[in-house]
Design a protein that fits this description.
mainly alpha, 5 helices, Helix Hairpins, about 60% helix
Length: about 110
């Protein structure tokens, strides 16, 4: 329910950008797993395994799920993002205090 309320508050461009980023990272993560499997196989040629390991090492941390998983939908901030709402702490406080999120009460902010 929270996601539907947030979708009404957030521009659709940020949501589309987040979905595209997640699908792109999923594609790259699959390729990274395939390369890791090819490097670990002992029956492959040594030169082929070396080139696969070089390609595997060239892929950075940006192609892993960790860099995308917890980002705020409003301002794309990767720090302190809540998994349930998809918002960081400051955005959650602002939307909760203005009344855009139903059922949120002020407890200790």
């Amino acid at each position: 329910m929270c996601r539907t309320v947030i979708k009404l508050c957030v521009g659709s461009n940020l949501i589309k950008k987040d979905i595209e980023r997640r699908s792109l990272v999923g594609k790259y993560e699959y390729g990274k797993i395939k390369l890791k499997y090819r490097v670990a196989r002992p029956d492959e040629d040594k030169i082929f395994r070396f080139f696969c390991s070089a390609r595997y090492n060239r892929r950075g941390w940006r192609f892993s799920y960790v860099s995308v998983r917890n980002r705020c939908f409003l301002n794309n901030n990767p720090q302190i993002a809540n998994r349930y709402t998809g918002l960081n702490r400051c955005s959650f406080k602002r939307l909760g205090s203005t009344g855009f999120l139903s059922g949120i009460r002020r407890s200790s902010w």
